[in-house]
Amino acid sequence: MEQPIAVTRQSFDDWMVPVYAPADFILVQGEGSQVWDQQGKSYIDFAGGIAVNALGHAHPQVKATLIEQAGKLWHLGNGYTNEPVLRLAKQLIDATFADKVFFCNSGAEANEAALKLARKYALDNSGSEKNQIVAFNNAFHGRTLFTVSAGGQPKYSQDFAPLPGGIIHTPFNDLAAAAEVINAQTCAVIVEPIQGEGGVLPADPLFLQGLRELCDRHGALLIFDEVQTGVGRTGHLYAYMQYAVVPDILTTAKALGGGFPIGAMLTTNRLATTLSVGTHGTTYGGNPLAAAVAGMVFSLINTPAVLEGVKQRHQWFIDGLNQINQQYPIFAEIRGGGLLIGCVLNKDFAGKAKQITQLANEEGVIALIAGPDVVRFTPSLIIPEQDVKEGLARFARAIARICS
Ligand SMILES: *Cc1c(COP(=O)(O)O)cnc(C)c1O
């Protein structure tokens, strides 16, 4: 066999479109919640590939499923359905409010499908005037032009104008403000039960309940973007279950494939008929390889033991982070749910989240940011206690350094 091409971190700057600024080391191997770089240095993984590797790295059963399916059938195209995708659809339907599922490859695509469904449903049932989408400031829904426009951070969309119209933004967790803009012309409201990228900010239960009532009153569809909060992340299979507010459409991706790209839009029978044959689609959506892996990931996570384990791990993190904060007062607030945790830096450390994650890397732990002022943790849902302890000890050393 030919020698593989030699690559270093410099290769990224040489060859890659510079939309990312990756860390200055390259990870090459992972097992459970540990990863290793090219030099063999070990890191505890508190990021889980940004809330994706929900069962850690190289999970034996997921790996076995991938290898088994790889020997059978990788791809067919949508002119032919397949067994893994039908089984995965049934798993999602049995576990949620949904009657029907549309599969795609990412969170953005799932939201794109949801927004298109909402527009067409309103057009078919109420006419072309009912086309307004209400979204929230600081929301994140993906990077396609429609979803980045629905997102509530103009810095991600403004350079790509003209943007799709008919999208109104209003403050998150402000029901009175939402009531001002939701009306007969609203076709959908899209909201994250916990704003992830926007700073790990949980929705107030009364806010989501109020949105449900406003949508019902004005005949608008309620879309929950659970791309980050779904598949056990909060200690509930989906966050809507904890809020006891049922959406009309739910989007899920990230943890669904445990590291293999897949996304899905879940909805009801009544709405699903809107997307009749030929109205929407995607080549890879429902690919048997992705669906087989997701089916195994979903069945491993959707158990009382794993979901309860997330709540227990939440407490390990909260206790450890509070302890660090007592020694080095740096966080104004520690918030989030389950294993989606955000540490909000106090004003003395404002803007230093990225620097903290860089120091954390040096100490041997992978952490995330959620904006410039929040350090975010989204580890594996089954991370072992000793890895939590060791990772927090390493993180504490990083905090000690930024405080000195
Ligand atoms: C990550 C994320 C997305 C986008 O998902 P991609 O797979 O990157 O397209 C959308 N919504 C939320 C809430 C997310 O966290």
UniProtKB/TrEMBL annotation:
GO terms for molecular function: identical protein binding; N2-acetyl-L-ornithine:2-oxoglutarate 5-aminotransferase activity; pyridoxal phosphate binding; succinyldiaminopimelate transaminase activity. The modification N6-(pyridoxal phosphate)lysine is found at K254. Coiled coil: none annotated. Its main location: cytoplasm. Binds 1 pyridoxal phosphate per subunit. Signal peptide: none annotated. The keyword ATP-binding does not apply. Its cofactor is pyridoxal 5'-phosphate. It is an enzyme of class 2 (transferase). GO terms for cellular component: cytoplasm. It catalyses: N(2)-acetyl-L-ornithine + 2-oxoglutarate = N-acetyl-L-glutamate 5-semialdehyde + L-glutamate; N-succinyl-(2S,6S)-2,6-diaminopimelate + 2-oxoglutarate = (S)-2-succinylamino-6-oxoheptanedioate + L-glutamate. N(2)-acetyl-L-ornithine binds at R143, T282. Pathway: Amino-acid biosynthesis; L-lysine biosynthesis via DAP pathway; LL-2,6-diaminopimelate from (S)-tetrahydrodipicolinate (succinylase route): step 2/3; Amino-acid biosynthesis; L-arginine biosynthesis; N(2)-acetyl-L-ornithine from L-glutamate: step 4/4. Keywords: Amino-acid biosynthesis, Aminotransferase, Arginine biosynthesis, Cytoplasm, Lysine biosynthesis, Pyridoxal phosphate, Transferase. Pyridoxal 5'-phosphate binds at G107, A108, F140, D225, E226, V227, Q228, T283. Belongs to the class-III pyridoxal-phosphate-dependent aminotransferase family. ArgD subfamily. HAMAP family: ArgD_aminotrans_3. NCBIfam families: arg_catab_astC, argD, PRK01278.1, PRK05093.1, PRK12381.1. Homodimer. This is Acetylornithine/succinyldiaminopimelate aminotransferase. The gene is argD.
